[in-house]
Every structure is written in structure tokens, then in C-alpha cells.
Amino acid sequence: MTESRDTADRHTPVMLARCLELLAPALEVPGAVLVDSTLGMGGHTEAVLRAFPRVRVVGLDRDPQALELAGRRLAPFGDRFTGVHAVYDDIADVVHTRLGLGSVQAVLMDLGVSSLQLDEVERGFSYAQDAPLDMRMDPTTGPTAADVVNTYDERELVRILREYGEERYAQRIARNIVAFRERVPMTRTGELVQILRASIPAATRKTGGHPGKRTFQALRIEVNRELESLERALPASIEVLAVGGRIVVEAYQSLEDRLVKRAFARGATSSAPVDLPVEPETHKPYLRLVTRGAEEAGAAELESNPRSQSVRLRAAERLRPTPVHMRRREP
Ligand SMILES: C[S@@+](CC[C@H](N)C(=O)[O-])C[C@H]1O[C@@H](n2cnc3c(N)ncnc32)[C@H](O)[C@@H]1O
């Protein structure tokens, strides 16, 4: 098997056919450019490049390893593909400054971690094997999960575990983490899993899945600032879209899906005061929802690709420029 096929096998793109169908009206425009904001192993991008032979794709990822693997997989497409090491909240800078484009026709966001990141034991995303407590999607920068568990105060740890992991035993886990680190800093995922086993009552452990599931999710979200990043990225991604352009977002947990739903609803609702007799042009909705609510994967995919189980897909189309009073403020 070639290395590129090997890369393809490491991550099966979720709801691929539906993504292509939803993006198609935007990608059929001559000279269309898609920003795949979460390039990963390049599965969605490869399918777009094959299905739309005139489209160019700019693939962003914060993970240099993903960019390298996807870059090699997509090399046969030559200059129709450009990989960029960036966080997706920087999409405006990438499109306008680095690529010199005024707007793009489509944006795709397939959120979360890739199977590659979960499978690479040494990156510390998985609770199934002992590894350094890292969890950074971009290992070249920023605090690790070890930094979080060793330096955050107990109250902050409780908040993160509750908010990002919906962990019922957050208080007990945080207390036990603090007691552990008073003796020696925590450096391994295995040490954390032991604490979780000791903190979660045996009866809950029998029914609630792996004791690491919720805490590992919470730490990953905190380490990578996933919600802050997404909250900034959504309006920025909508603003780089040309009129008629489309955005498709696949979210895998409710906190993310809520942010997507809110950002789309904001654009799809008139901002005119209710008592105005005529809706001014500047207050008309600038988005049209293309999906009704969030779509889920179909039965066949649910069976063949476990990653698709929690997906919630939403799509929207740009109707007009974002009115000035609704634009995001430049950072
Ligand atoms: C679910 S995977 C994408 C898989 C891809 N669609 C495919 O078919 O191979 C998500 C990717 O997004 C990247 N990512 C997550 N958050 C990011 C962010 N804020 N900025 C840029 N990339 C991010 C991750 O590093 C990961 O490689």
C-alpha cells in the first residue's frame, strides 16, 4: 500500500457525500476556492479536488504532522492545493493577507481531533494507553494537559471538568488531582486515569463508559482553547465568504454545535427593531440556513464509521455582506 493510501486509511471523513452536495452550488462557480479549515488527513479535501476539477482548496491545520501527511497525499493535485499551518480563527488573515484573496466561495469545518491524533499514543489524547500528558493539537506551542493539571487551582479544575466534560464527580477528581500533585507533578495519562478510577464510584464506572472519557475531553478542550477558537472562527469564516458562498460545519459535541447554531441563527435573523414598518437593507439577514436544524449521519454510516455517531452538521449560504453593525471587531 502506498503511503498516501495509508494516510487515507487513518481517518474516514464523516458525512462526505452530504458535504459535497451542500458545497456544490458554491463550488460550481468558475475559479471557486474552498478553505478546508480542518484539513486533518485531507479526506474531505481530496474528495472535493476529485469531484470539482476546477476548484482550488486551501487547507488549514494547527497540527504540523497532519499538514505534512495530507500535503503528501494531495501532492498529485499540484497547485490546486495549498496547505497552511494556522489556527482557523486566523482565516481572515490567511485569505486576505497570505493568499491575497478578497473572498472565497466555500468554507468547511470538520471539528475536533482526527483519528491520527487519537491513535498516536505519544500525543496523550487517549486514555486507553499510558503516555505523556500532552494533548496539544499543535505540539510546537502552548500549555500541555500536564501544565493544566499541575498549575490550575482546584476551583478552575472543577469548572473545566463540569463545563467541558459534564463530569458529575468533578469536585472529587479535582481534589484528588491536587493531592497527587502536592507530592509529585503529574506527567502521565496513566497517572490521571488511576486518579479517575479512584474518584468515580464503582457503580458509575460499570455503566458510565471509560472513567477517562469526560475528563480527557474537558482537558483537551481547555488545552487547545477549542471553544474560544471556534467562537472567533465562525464570524470570521462567514465574513470571508463571497455572496452565494457556503459554509458547512460538522460538530461532535453539544458545546460546539451550540456555538455553530448561534452564529448561523444570528446571520439568518433580521437585526431590525421589531417595530420598524420597513426592514432596512442594512438589517436584513446575511445568511440563509441550508440545513433544517442539525443533520446526523445515516444508518449505514453510523454502522461503518464510529466517528460519525455524534456528528451534527449545519450549513448556511451567504446572502449579502455582513452589515457593519453586525461585523466582528478586528482583534
Ligand atoms: C476531525 S479532523 C479533520 C479530518 C478531515 N476532515 C479529513 O477528512 O481527514 C480535525 C482537524 O482539525 C484540526 N484543528 C482542530 N482545531 C483547529 C483549529 N482551531 N485551527 C486549525 N486546525 C484545527 C485538528 O488538528 C485536526 O487535524
UniProtKB/TrEMBL annotation:
Catalytic activity: cytidine(1402) in 16S rRNA + S-adenosyl-L-methionine = N(4)-methylcytidine(1402) in 16S rRNA + S-adenosyl-L-homocysteine + H(+)
Keyword set, alphabetical order: Cytoplasm, Methyltransferase, rRNA processing, S-adenosyl-L-methionine, Transferase
Annotated spans, Disordered: 297-331
Compartments where found: Cytoplasm
UniProt-listed Enzyme Commission number(s): 2.1.1.199
A GO CC term attached to the entry: cytoplasm
One record GO biological process: rRNA base methylation
Function: Specifically methylates the N4 position of cytidine in position 1402 (C1402) of 16S rRNA.
Family: Belongs to the methyltransferase superfamily. RsmH family.
Protein name per its UniProtKB record: Ribosomal RNA small subunit methyltransferase H
Species: Pengzhenrongella sicca
Gene this chain is encoded by: rsmH
